[in-house]
Amino acid sequence: MEPFVGAVPATESAPVPASTPASAPSTTPIRATPLPVRLLDAALDLLLPAACVGCGVARTQLCPDCRGQLTAAEPLRARPAHPPPGLPEIYAAVRYGDPARQVLLAHKERGALRLAAPLGQALALAVRAAFPATPRQERPLLLVPMPSTTHTTRARGHNPTLRVARAAASALRGAGVPTRVVPALRHARAVADQSGLDAAARQRNLRGALTVHAHRTRLREGHVLVVDDLVTTGASIVEATRALAEAGADVLAGAVVAATQLRD
Ligand SMILES: [Zn+2]
Question: I need a labelling partner for 163 at 20 to 30 A (CA). Which of 100, 137, 174, 230 fits?
């Protein structure tokens, strides 16, 4: 199997049309891989020795070297070029480049679901950097994933950010850190495609786009971190933080697998 080479996603998780009926035309830049093809691919992943999605080496879905690049680095603060007002501290496991880019794309767009585990491990490292929790802490970490629209989730056949957040929570619990995933956010309205928008335009586009639809009480029972697979401008995380704060949650930080720009 060839390593997947896809387009760099131009947007973060939030900028997808919200409340769009599945039958309506969509501006979401989803690669139109038919479901049977994706199912076949997922089945082949199980049956055949795959090539590493990061480097193409045979007989493994993710080779030790690529896995190490994803999970062995010291997480760093993400630093968007023009940090929008209201941006919390965001920690990223790695810089957005290969192999992280290939692993994220294979998981998100090709349904290579087993990659959620290493991606979750990477996210868990970023969470620990954002909030150096102790195993004996009384209040749990609450990971709030950036939401996907129902439409996007249906088109992909799964919700990649939620899946990676769950894998991260599992890794953290395995390390003795009480952690829960709280999928509290959803889209309140449709937003335009973010591609081609600069940071300020993205922020205007996203303002008021997210809302807390569930788990309001639970959000006050722990340390809230917004989690996502990728941060570029930070506009999505600002909007998530705004929505969570409006619901009474105190967002401590953001944590992502990869960031396009990191603090040196
Ligand atoms: Zn590799």
Answer: 137
Domains of the chain, each with CATH number or no CATH: 35-259 (3.40.50)
Count other Cβ atoms within 10 Å, centred on residue 221.
Answer: 14
pTM of the model: 0.80
Distance, CA 56 to ligand 1 centroid (Å)? 6
Give the pLDDT band of residue 245 (cuts 50, 70, 90).
very high
What pLDDT does residue 137 have?
72
Tokens of 95: 């810089």
Query: Where do the DSSP E strands lie in 161-239?
Result: 179-181, 185-187, 210-212, 223-231
The answer for 56, left when phi > 0, alpha when psi is -120 to 50, beta otherwise, is left
Report how far ligand 1's centroid is from the alpha carbon of 7 (Å): 19
Exposed, middle or buried by CB within 10 Å (0-12, 13-18, 19+), for 106? buried
